[in-house]
Write a structure and sequence with these properties.
By secondary structure, this protein is mostly helical. It is 76% helix and 0% strand. Mean pLDDT is 76; it is low at 10-16 and 129-133. It holds the Pfam family YidB.
């Protein structure tokens, strides 16, 4: 099963919870504006003491993250707040939803720590968003 198939399956589950689907869309929009995009997100996790965790996500060794790890990893970036604003939900909802979405995003957009080019990310982000809408 490919990444978009996996996301499609998750999207089906998320469509039952419209807040999580909104957060997935808000996250993708916020990441397009985030300094460094997905690489910036990975760097933020590393700078905030979660380098081992994000490396394990990127390599597929770790499949989960917690809302607390999302908060710690993105502390000071404004990404949680931006995604909340774009999705029209609270930052707490964003942290919970990101704990489900971020492991997939990191593993598939930056497998083994290799970040896809920005144009490739943009195209993949549009495909991802189409699965949630």
């Amino acid at each position: 099963m490919g990444f978009l198939d996996e996301i499609g399956a998750v999207a089906g589950q998320l469509s039952q919870n419209s807040d999580q689907a909104k957060v997935a869309g808000g996250l993708m929009q916020a990441l397009e504006q985030h300094p460094g995009g997905i690489q910036g997100l990975i760097d933020n996790f590393k700078q905030n003491g979660l380098g081992d965790h994000v490396n394990a996500l990127a390599s597929g060794e770790q499949q989960t993250t917690t809302p607390e790890q999302v908060e710690q990893g993105l502390s000071g970036t404004g990404l949680i707040e931006q995604a909340a604003e774009k999705a029209g939900v609270s930052p707490d909802v964003v942290k919970t939803a990101m704990s489900t979405v971020l492991p997939m995003v990191i593993q598939h957009f930056a497998p083994n720590g290799q970040v896809a080019g920005q144009s490739e990310f943009g195209g993949m982000a549009q495909q991802l968003l189409s699965r949630f809408l």
